[in-house]
Fold each of these.
Amino acid sequence: MPSPTVTLLTPTTVVSPAERLTVPTFGDVVVDRPAHADWQRYLHELDPTTELAAVWISADAEPLPAVRALRSLTRFDRTRVYVVGPDTAGPVPGWAEALDVEDIVRPAAVAPEGLTTSVELALRAHRALMTDDLYTDFYLDMTFNKIFDWFETTRWDWKEVDLDRIEHGMLDERTVDFLTEAAVIEFGTLPGAHNFLREWQDEVSFSSWALQWGAEESRHSLVQARYLDQIGVKLRSKHALYKREPYPQGDVRSATLMMNVISESRASALYKALAAHISEPVIRKIWRLLARDEARHCRAFSVFMRELCDSNPAHQTAALSMAYIWLADRGNGVKHPAGMFYPHSTSAAGIRRIETIQQDSVDAADAKVMSIVRLLADDDSLETPRDIKAKLRDLARRSGAR
Amino acid sequence: MPRTSVTDIEQTVRRFVAEKLSIEAEAVDLDTDLRSLPRFDSIHALQIVLEIEQHYDIEVENRVVFETSTVRDFAAAIATVIAEAGAEPLS
């Protein structure tokens, strides 16, 4: 990877040769000092592989047109811009915010003794923007903002669940077993949320939604544990602790999201099946609400997944690979993160038991996932996991031919 | 389809497994449990299968991806597919 470049634009008419600077965290950095008169030509002729991380523009070098010239070229959208002038105490001019100027700094910032520190700060800011796959210029343009209201307005209210109205006579041992298993399986939320925040630590949009997701999922264990408590069954907290240890985070975000698309779709189908086979009205209501939650989560995960896949074919391949792995293999029962990743977990067996209530419920869930896969691959012919594997072969062949 | 010996297939599988997992081919014994190899997981298994399919221009069943445990078993499954596709592998 070439060294990042920073540029000091001064009002001189003399072009200085490029220098190299060594910054502790980032290593070698190229420092260009183009002449003011050459600014437009410099920007247009800069090698396309150059990562122009930051620019310092002297206040004496007509900063407004210089910044405009930079921002008019989309490849420099994320380049950090600093205006260098003696007067840093006054209000930042309106155009500075409009053109995404990072700061107004004193000349000492670009003097030899201060330059390394200034470059390090600028590179940190630039790297933060570059590592966010779903970065948008403006906060409210991010997908989190677009789906937030949908989530806020469709969340169930605790008032909808009246635990004092449980019909105890309508409960049997099997229902209590399913309910206990479902509550325990839902404890997988916490390590899942920990991992989301670790895997997306340099990102804002999905991470913000992951907090919403975690808050909703944590209600699933709670509402079922409270129901159990009401009928005299105490849920042990060990299930939420050592039985749900952290697991290694995923390698590719779109693959992690596909895994969650599938598990949410399956969870929704299993809750629907449970609700359809129970007559006790309070738990039926709870399971219907949770089925709706999981279906909402499935859709939201798919929105973030498609956003990543649309921006990068490697994400598409990773997501399709994960879809194949999870849809094609039911040799050891239905895969779900809560049953797969924890050494002490009993959830795989629990999910298998719940699945017995309606054997075709997971088939229906997977059929919905296949419709998401078709959209993702932009291929209406995909019907089965075998078709997904054939698609992956085709994508590999095409990428090998390029 | 060219005739291919089972031994050739085994060596090809070993090479693909080693390349995909970034380990030496010598570390992949014919009877080593693939799941015991570093970094081997379902995604790597799929990637190896896709490369094998492309190499021999065949398609293997889903169960081969998930149930095959050694290079020897994997090569045998591929030899069967090749044979069914019309070219008898040399034994």
Note: The beta strands of chain A are 5-9, 16-23, 27-33, 52-58, 80-84, 101-105.
Amino acid sequence: MISVAHAQTSGRFTLKGVTVDTSGVPLPESTVMLLAPKDSTLVNFARTAKDGTFEFKNVKRMPYLIKITYVGYLPYQQEIKPKDDDVTDLGKIKMTFMDQVLYDVVIKAFRAPLSIRGDTIEYDPKAFKVQPGASVEDLIRRLPGLQVDQDGTIKAQGETVKRVTVDGKRFFGDDTKAATKNLPAEAISKVQVFNEKTEQSRITGVDDGKHEKTLNLQLKDSHKKGGFGKATLAAGTDKRLEGKVNYNRFNEKNQFSIIGLGNNTNQGGMSWDDYQDFKGSQSFNWGDDGDFGFGGGVRYISFGGDDEESLTIQAGRGAQNRGFNKNWAGGANYNFDTKKTKFNTSYYYNQTTQDLDATSRQTNFLTNSAFTKLDTNNRLNFNENHRGSLRYEKTIDSLNTLIVLSNMRIGSGTADYLSHQEFYRGVQDTTQLSNTSDQRNYSDFNSFALGNTAIFRHKFKKKGRNFAVSLAYNVNNSNGTINQRSTNRFVRTSQAEPDSILNINQENFTKSLRNQFKGSLLFIEPISKKFVLESFYNYSLKSDDVDRDVYDVREGGRTMNNNLSRYYNNRSTFNRVGTSLRYSHNGLNISAGAGAQQIHLDGKFAVDQNDPTRTRIDRKFFNFVPSVSLNFDLKRNRYLYGGYSVGVSEPNIRDLQPIVDNSNPLYIRVGNPNLVPTVNHSVNLGYNYFNPGSFVQMFFGAYYNYYDNQVIYSQFVDENLVTTTMATNISGGNNLSAYANYGFPIVKTKSNFNINASYNLGRNLTNINGELNETKSNGYNWGARLDYTPGDNFTIYTNANWNITDTKYSISSGQNQKIINSNYGAEMNFKMPKDIYFNSRFSYSSYVNDRFGFNQKMPILNVSVYKTMLKSKKGEIRLSAFDLFNKNRGISQSAYQNFVSQEQVRTLARYFMLSFTYNMRGVGHTVKRKGYGY
Amino acid sequence: MKKLLACFLLLGCLPVFAQTDGLAVTYERTFYWSRLYDKLTFLSEEERSRMKTSWGANDDGDKSKGQLFITNSQSKYVDLEPEVDGGYRWRQSEYMIFRDFDKGTKMELEEFSGKNYIIEDSLPAPKWKVMNKIKEISGYMCMMAVSEDTIKGQKITAWFANDLAYNGGPERYYGLPGLILEVDVNDGELILAAVKVEKKPVAENLVLSKKMKGKKLTNAEYEKLITTHIRDSIKSRRNPYWSFRY
């Protein structure tokens, strides 16, 4: 605190003086500051009067540093000691005029060129211009008081510099020239010269009074080079192995990283953390979607797509709890980032081998009857993908931006499928066998996909007027062979001997090529301060060229199956134009708009390319698409949002072709050329509350979907339980969902409680043997979570979830299904002495459907003990036990359309594993804590 | 404290060229949010460096503008409405800083975690250290002064212009022998820089709105509120710095 001016004569005094220029003319309005000499703390200040006089009355009696400034003059500074008298008069203080050259050097520079602290002289390189690419030596030549000899020896105030350090650390031993010749001048934020004790006195701790001139180069933060990496190796029982290594090297503009991983522990590919370490600054790209539409003013990140189909690297897929998987992956990434240019390129390879054994049971309800299917199958799948990507973003100037991106995937794989199926009449799987089917399919495919997009954004001089254009060209080429063999036995009269046997042996060669050209325009025009008009246009031309040749393989050779072989070419042209008006003011954003779109399908198909008879499908679909959206900041941490939108999806070309596909003899598909697009009306409304002060959070919301002309598959099941499906349009299907969540700290920072509940209502329509079936499902879900985190050494997390689904089928009213799934979980972590940590996780899941006596319980306990080690805790050794009770398997059950099903899949169960991790950034964790928002 | 300020004023009034009209100064505020992750002690070094490599190069700083109206006796700082850019517009949080140098009092309106607070108390004297560095900002020669905010964990570097004999500055910063034209918090986490200095009468702009509503706090209560919030948030592994004016 600044000393308060009380009138105490003995401890106080008055300080006065006059500021004048070199010729004695008084300088009025100059600033006089009194600082504490020790640390320059500002104690008092004043401005001089017209005659240049100033006076500090009753200031504390102590030495001061007086500092005076006046425009155009060099700042004046002097240490003063009060005299014994009540008044100390400093008399005339002469200020020196600063000439233009000096002014430019001292003032115009971003910082003053040099400052002196104690015996350290500090230079700011910004004030001394050097050529781009110049070395530190070139810079030092320009610094006043420093000189560089012919041989590179540096002298400071005439003395030879004995040591050069970088950020206080020795650089290449005692060779002072190594640093100054090799480091770029632009990497340096400060050059400091000071006297350092000699090596000998530092070792002995005895100051011998000798000093050596030392030059320290302080690196700019942005030029600090860094590298980090992490390697984990693990081995366990049952030949379980895991390995992962990543390394990242970066400086201000460049980031380079590599990753490699392999495991047979169902660990999948990269986690989100691995992905972020791998892609660095390019982990999340904003606004890369060129398909402008409603809400074009908002930029978002889009992820997703199927793992195998996606062009970009998919991360965060988590552990695979189905079957036994072997995974290999590896890649390299390079980023270059400056304010104006961002460039990225990466390559990534991954492969998965999956061995899957499953058993499933499904009961299908028909009009007044039912049938049940038991399926035991084994799948052996192999998939591999090479992915490459390029992205270039250029900020041409403050008004124009260009983004060009290209992603590529080359994939291939095989799938071996072996299945034994039994079909029973009724809901029981013991009596009334109807037919059995033994199937063996083998497929081999490879594919190539390429996506290229260019987006150009332009801001007009008029604030808020924006324009964007995008062009895209995508190719998707795939080639596959499938060998399908099955033996189907139909039993009618006797349960022992089949009445008929159907053997199928087919080879199927499919080539497909898709080319797509797309373009979009977006124009944003502010009408007033609060209203904005957004207009867009989308165009897409998609061409599919598919050739499927199916052969029946018989003893005498193979013959083409003209029912199943197909060649088609389909061109789908899409045009959409729309506009919306948005009101945006003080946290309230409402927009309403409408669009019109047309889809034109122009397809030709034939048995194969050589067949001159082509059947044509020429359909045009026109739809209006309205859109409303609301986003409202209600103040006090409350947000309300909602919207209404209409989605139109064109019928699948396969469903449109009026052909019969009996490649699965028990499940025959028939096309329907009269299909129209599905129109999905969706409404949502939500409310969020989070109080960052009290940590209370609450959110609830609801959404509703209604389908017009939904494409469903009507089923006809014959007496042999062969299902024939045909795509049909039907209106009226809908679903409603509502959810709520409330969380609060029981004891702030120590214990949190959270409850949630949701409700789903679904109405699904299907035609079963000519009768409309309406499946109504009511789903109730609720859960609770309790965290106990008393300190840094002990944490407990518990949770419980219950899910009940009631399903009713209108065609079979006695067959209501109640599926109950529940889960209870607990996790405990604590720290023991000597950096040893303990983690245990227990989960108990139960799957019940009483109607079928289905009742599965699955207790899973995982335990691990780990210890951090090595310097800076860079190492960690860990012993883990997975599924101690040896109960793990994949279980799922569902009720949908006209069926109810249960499936069980074998997967990785109990194993023990020992692992070692080396992390250059330090393992540095305390007891495991679940993170919240950053 | 009041005596001291009165003393400042007394000395300040001595010069003949006393500025009675006042100034309207526009500041640009650039906030580099990605740098705050370094302050979250609950993150491991690995998590922090991951944030830095993923977001650092993409953080061009959140920009907004504010305006200071100042005379020799009073000052008022308010946020300016963002310019129309065609995009969504979010609600601006309440923020107003008023200082009466004559009376040695302050009145601050700030929204903290969704609630409005009015901090009405005497003006505490900031502890500045005046350094030897000088540079030019908007044509004015400025000297450097440094200070520290132990509550928010901020190392503050301010540049003040002796030519502009006002004791104020942007946001909460004040108390130097000249107008503060630039503030740099923690070597670039936050930069407040004057982009326009206009000499004009500002008496009308200094009038306080009568509608101001909020919970009344003293300086000590406000400090306690922020200290507790930062402590609890860090303990609960949450970023405390989003919910108040950094």
Note: Residues 825 and 843 of chain A are 4 Å apart (CA to CA).
Amino acid sequence: MLGEWKETVRMFPMRKARSFGSHLFHYAILLSLSFVFVYPMLYIVSQSLMQVNDIADATVQWIPKELNFEHFRFAFDRLHFWRSFMNSTVTSLGAALLQIISCAIVGYGFARYRFPGYNVLLGLVLFTFLVPPQTIVVPLYMFFSDLGWINTYLPFLVPSAFGHGLRGALFVLIFIQFFRGLPYQLEESARIDGAGAFRTFRSIMLPLAGPAMLVVFLFSVVWHWNDVFEPNLYFMVSEHYNLPQSLMILNAQAEQQLSEAQKMMGGAMLTSVPTGYNRNMAGALLTILPLVILYGYAQRYFVESLERTGIAGE
Amino acid sequence: MKKPFKISMRGRHILEGYSFISIWVVGFLLFLAVPLGRSLYFAFHRLEITANGLKASPNGFQFFRDAFTVDVGFTPALIHTMTNLVLHVPLILVFAMFSALLLNRPFVGRLAFRSIFFLPVIIASGTVLQKLLDQGAATLPIFLQYDVANKLNDYVPTAVLLPLLSMMDSLTLVIWDSGVQILIFLAALQSVPVSLYEAADMDGATPWEKFWKITLPIITPMILVNTLFSIVNSFTEIRNSVMQYIQMIAFEKNNYGYASALGWIYFVIIFLIILIVLYIFRNAGSNNYNREER
């Protein structure tokens, strides 16, 4: 709300002063930059629809001659789409929901309470953000394997429930910033009315944290969805692969086809499987499609929320 | 009814605070402190897998010496990662700032453009980005189509042109990598009080002056946040050669001790770089003029 109000105030004198030319220039830059941002999406869509004769046809640059979803059928099959989709969904949605709750609780504790060792603990949160996963990956893997958690969802869900997991520290910091920006009066009146600390948090502060929760949720889902480093460690069998992992193998299969084709050709050099790339792109589109749909639905609230999370220290 | 023991208001406040953060502390011990300690232990020990589990024998600084003297793979990977970092992070910051300033101006379709600028965070990361890179789709076709390289070669010496072109190549990656940073800068720009710009307008400041004298000093803390985020992002990226190397050592060669030592070297270097960044930004806090009041 405040942001919008500021906006109108700010644009008033500027709009008068700005000439038509500078407006045009502004849009030109924005549009050309937007092209760079949309380019991967366009590329993926266009490539995934192309057939062999389109690739050979020099007149075809972006739009294939006919609509053919054959690559999608192939990729859908080879990705084991529904299985991989379920694995991806459980890990990213589960971890994201758990991270929202746990990081909100912890962030609230840091934002509203002062206790002995406060600075040290806050420092440790920052420290956690900086430790590269590579440094602790070996002991962590052993720990989870001792517990028998390999090939289960637990290595993703349990750390998330404790406010850790993928970039958990960052989410805690976002919540700290957000709760610091809320007025104290709300809690004080709740406390005077006799609500305990947890009741106050649950029924007063948590419902207000919508914007921060949305931002954390979206970040967490996106990062978990695209992550292959941890799944590669903890999902060892293909039944548990998530979508990006399956996409990786899709490539491996194409490579294998390539080398087989080379053998058949008696060692003649083939630079690529004619449609291998296009199949890959079909797989890539299927992999990111759920995210694109989610983002398409949430982006309006998301960009507004991000401004309201106080991420920028307002 | 009398309580068994009474605690003061202050004591209760502290206790409540601890109970809120307790889950994080437990998680920290389980999933960070203990693994970190164990990996430090591994780094100084030779591990053997025996029937009764792992057997560790003291190894001193051997792994650390080996990393730089014997191992032919690690140092190049490290240098590659560092060069990428030093080249990309400033570019990302400048580009993100530029885009945020563009998007912050009032115009029709602002929200649509903002959503577009965040799109690569969703699409161009992880495996999908890897695929795009494999296919050479991470370079804009403009450079290839118009044969810019060859045309420029007539005017610019090859020694200068090649690094320049490789930077142009990675420019798309830089642009795609800066989605989150753009949003953080945008939020920061929104938090600059309008009254300051009004006052500057009264005094006849140009937009250029307003940027350097008002905008930049106020959002300096956010530049620090973005720098740290970009550094951590670049260090933990899956395409990062050190990351890939350590993973290979650990899970293909099963050399856990050596992998842990490499992980620690990597961590220490990251930490040094972050200390340098913090040192550069050491005055950022003082620009934080009476922020608490608002």
Note: Chain A has a mean pLDDT of 79.
Amino acid sequence: MIREIEVTEVTQNIREMCIQTNYFLSEDMACAMKEAAEKEQGALGKKILGQLEENLEIAKTDQIPICQDTGMAVIFLEIGQDVHFTGGDLQEAVEEGVRQGYIEGYLRKSVVGDPLLRENTKDNTPAILHTSIVPGNQVNIIVAPKGFGSENMSRIVMLKPAQGVEGVKQVILDTVREAGPNACPPLVVGVGIGGTFEKAALLAKQALTRPVGEKAQAPHIRSLEEEMLEKINQLGIGPGGLGGNTTALAVHINTYATHIAGLPTAVNLCCHVNRHVKRTL
Amino acid sequence: MDYRIAAPLDREMIKTLRAGDYVWISGTIYTARDAAHKRMQETLDDGQKLPLDWKDNIIYYMGPSPAREGRVIGSAGPTTASRMDLYAPKLLDMGLGGMIGKGKRSPEVLDAIVRNGAVYFAAVGGAGALLSRQIKQAEVVAYEDLGTEAIRRLEVEDFPVIVVIDSQGNNLYEMISQDNTV
């Protein structure tokens, strides 16, 4: 059965989701932050985590963004193959949602229209839109605005198969170590292993939208996530990079099939304001 | 040590600050980030005068979110300082007293801090809502067309920062990473 969905419904939801995710940290992230504050050993680290807790409360009560970098709007649309969008252009409907959300929500306009000429577009468009076609007649929308303090410290490495899992571990640890205080720890570390050059990066980005606390399904990946979280937290970078044992809240690893000659590995870092919100139409 | 200090800075006082000290700043500071620094550099390259005299002042690397009606400013946390590393030594040599940002600085910036008896502070990255409460007034004073990247004059009260690089060249981030390699 074909189901018709008005594109204005997409606009309306994206508008609300842009605002919601910038004022309120999702439950999974808020819990992870609370837990970290209780467990942190470093004196300065504990103080910083306390301030970040307070920051979340102020954002809620003052209706002000958690962080002034309200990000570039990364949006995933999983579109059921039995859905027919009516009433306009889907891409434009998404952009309009971002435009309305960022203007009406007092969110910062952080997008320049050309990467070299660098003139601000003044409405935070265009968004980064990833669509996929899935079975069914529903549409999943994920809005995940991404700040660039942490985006700038992310990286992708085309490892050789011979470097194997040890090579992957090295890339993850080097990326976090080099980022140090710049990426606003405590971090969520999104890792993509496999696929092609662009697929690995996308896997890493998608890993950041996984609810914190949810583990990978494959046992060898789950244990790799646990090992990496422990090793990262032994680096001593700590909250704000000011020392402590909470450098990352979680490591999420997504994998995909790859070529006999390759082992692409992407590490997408996200700060403690790891914004992601999901709705189903 | 914890200190309460005034901005613009007293150069003798900031010589006593040490990496790791916790400091509350009250007074007048200015914002500037990527685009404003680029424009200041171009202005200097053209042999023109800058719109402000940076002597003993503090630049806060920050671009706020828009203020709601009746509010002074939106969310207002620090941005990554290293993107301004290319421009900072020149401004320090022109008298800039301090910088507030987050993250590491280049060896060239550290040298310029020592050479000029200046200081680099970090504010807590991602605490923009909390920090906005310490900002009592905000006004665009130059480069208005740059929007969030315009130069703003801020009146702050007990604005919380940590000394990362002091006037002797001690670097808190280096001290922390050395602690963890031994």
Note: The longest helix of chain B spans residues 34-45.
